Amino acid sequence: MLDYIWLIVLMPLLGFLVNGLLGRRFSRPVVSLIGCGTVFVSLVMSVIAFFELLQLDPHHRYHEIYSLFKWIPSGALDIEIGFLFDPLSAVMALVVTGVGFLIHVYSIGYMAHDKDYARFFTYMNLFTGSMLLLVLANNFLLLFVGWEGVGLCSYLLIGFWYTRQSAANAGMKAFIVNRIGDFGFLLGIMLIFWTFGSLNFHEVFGSAFGFFQSMHGTGGEEVVLRDILGLGMGTFTLITIFLFIGATGKSAQIPLYVWLPDAMEGPTPVSALIHAATMVTAGVYMVARCNVLYLLAPDTLMLVAIIGAATAFFAATMGVAQNDIKRVLAYSTVSQLGYMFLACGVAAFGAGIFHLMTHAFFKALLFLAAGSVIHGMSEIQDMRQMGGLKSKMPVTFITMLLATLAISGIPLFSGFFSKDEILWKSFSSDYGGIVFWIIGLVTAGITAFYMFRLIYMTFYGKNRAPDDVQHHIHESPKVMTVPLMILAFLAVVGGWVGIPPALGGGAWFEEFLHPVFAQGEQIMAHGHHPEGFTLEYILMAASVVLVLISIFVAYTLYRRKPEISTRLREKFSGLHKVVYNKYYVDEFYQGAVVKPLVGLSFFFWKVFDIVVIDGLANGLAYMIKSFSSGGRKIQTGFLRNYLLIFVLGVVIYMAYVVLK
User: Fold this and answer.
1) Sign, Cα dihedral of 604, 608, 610, 613
2) What would the pLDDT profile of 51-94 be if each residue is shown by its tens digit?
3) Cα 147 to the chain's mean position, in Å?
4) pTM, to two decimals
5) Of 264, 334, 615, 659, which is least packed with CB atoms within 10 Å of its CB?
6) What is the sign, positive or negative, of the torsion defined by CA atoms of 250, 302, 287, 233?
7) 29: cis peptide before it, omega within 30°?
8) Residue 328 pLDDT more than 70?
C-alpha cells in the first residue's frame, strides 16, 4: 500500500469529479454513496498504510514516492509530483479521512432537504482531497497546491448558501484574509528555493541540518547555503517568519483569526470539517513539519509561542460572552489552535500534534452535536432560546457532555493528556517559561467555564424557545447520532495513546512521531530538567483544580443561581459589551485597514484607471475617429471632385519641383 499512497489523495478527488459533473443526474443515495464511499476508501487505505509503516524499522519509518511524474522541468526549478508517508503524515491522513468520513456520513442527514445536495458533497470531497494532498505532499510547492485548495473550498463551503448576504460576505472574508497569509507563505517558499536550491522536504531539511552540523563542527560533509540576502542565520529567521505568516492565516491566529468565527455561516458539517479535520490544522502541521527550520530560528520560535499563548487566552475570553452556540465553539477552536502553536513555540512539536489529534475528535463531536441541537430546534442557534434539551435529545446531550469533559481537560479524557502535556512542556522546556504556563493554565480554566456554560444553557433548565418550536423538538436521526457516538468514544479514549511516563504510560504517540523530529532534537538546546515527577504532578493537580473550580462557577451562575449571572452582566455591562463585541477588532480592521484600502483603490480607479488608462485609450480612439471623419468627407462619390483633387495634387507637385 505504501507504493500507492497517492490513491489516498486521488479517491476524494475522483468523488469530486463524478459528483461535480454528474451529481445532478444522480439520486441522493447515489450522491451520498460516491461522496462518503470515496472518503471511506481513502480511510481504509490510510489504515493499511499506517500498519505497514509500523512494520518498518523505527529509525527509518518513512516511505517516499520521490517522483510520480515530473511537474515543472525548468532548469534549476525541477519539481516532481511526489508523496511522503511518515509518522506525521500518517497521523494527519488518519485524522483527515477518519473524522472526515464521519462528517460526510453525518451530512447525509443534516443536508437531506437541501436542494444543492450534490453540490455540497462535491465541495466536501474536494476539501478532503485538498487536505490530503497538503499532508501527503513531499515538497513545498505541492503542499502549497493543497494549501490553496483548502482555502478555495473554505470560500465555497462557508458561502454555500450564497443567497444569504451574510454567508456570501463570510466566504469572501475568509478568502481575502487567507490570501494575506498565503502571500507570506509564498514568499517563504521562494526564499527556501533561493537558499537551498530545492523544495523537497528531505533535501531542504537535510541541508539545513547539515548546515547546522557544519557550523558546530559535529561531523558530516560541509554544507554551504546560498545566502543571497547576506543575513547568515537570519535567513532561517526570515524563512520561518514568512511561513508562520501563512500559518496565522490558515490556522486563525492573531492577527488573522477574524475570518474563523464568521465561518459559522456555512452548514454545520462544514464548520466541523474546517475546525476539526482540515483547514485550520494545516498551519500547525506545516510548522511541525518544518521543525528543523524553526529550531534554527529561535527568535521565530519565541514569536510562535507568544502568538499562540496570546491567541489561546484572547479567544477564550471572547467565548465567555457569546450566545450563538456555534460561535462559542468557533472561539474555542481559535483558542485551542493557540495551544497547539504554544506547544510548537516551546519546541514541543509532538505535543502540538497530539493535541491536534485529540482536538479533532472532541471538536468535530462538539460541532456535530451543536448541529444536532440546531436541527432539533428548527435552526435556532441562540442558547438563550434553548434549555431543557437533556431529556428530549439524550444522545446529543451525552455525547456533547463527553466532548465538553474532554476539551475541559478532565482526567482520563483525551484532552486531559494532550493539554497537560502542552502545559508541562511550556513550563519545563528550555524554550518555555512560567509565563507561558500561567497563560495556558488560566486559559484552561476559562475554557472549562464557557464550555459548561454552553452545556447548562443548552440542556438544563426550562426550554425558552417559542411554543411552535418546542412542540417539534426531537432527537436527530441515526445517520447523525451514530457518528456522534463514534466520535464520543474517540474523545474519551483518543488520548490514551499518549499517556505520559508520569502517569505510568510510555508516551507511545510521542515515540511514534520521534523519527520526524529526530534531527530537530539534535539542534535543540538541552538545559537542566528536574528529576522525578513531583513537579509535574503538582502542575497537573493545579490544572485539574482550576478546571473543577471553573466548572463549579459555571454551575452556580447558569444552573443553580442564574440570577447572579444576570446581575453580574448588568454590573459590568461595559466590560460585557466589549467582550461580546469581540473587543471591536472587526470594527478596528474595518476602519483602519479595509476602508483606507478601499478608498485608495477607489482613488486609483477614478484617477489612474479612468483618467490615465481610459483617457489614453479613449483619446487615441477619438483622434483616429476624427481623422477618419475628415477623410470620409473627401469621399463624395462625384467624379468632378476627384478630378479637382487630382489637378490640385498635380499643381502642388509641379510647384514643389519648380521651387526646389
Assistant:
1) negative
2) 999 998 887 887 888 777 788 777 777 788 899 999 999 999 99
3) 9
4) 0.90
5) 659
6) positive
7) no
8) yes
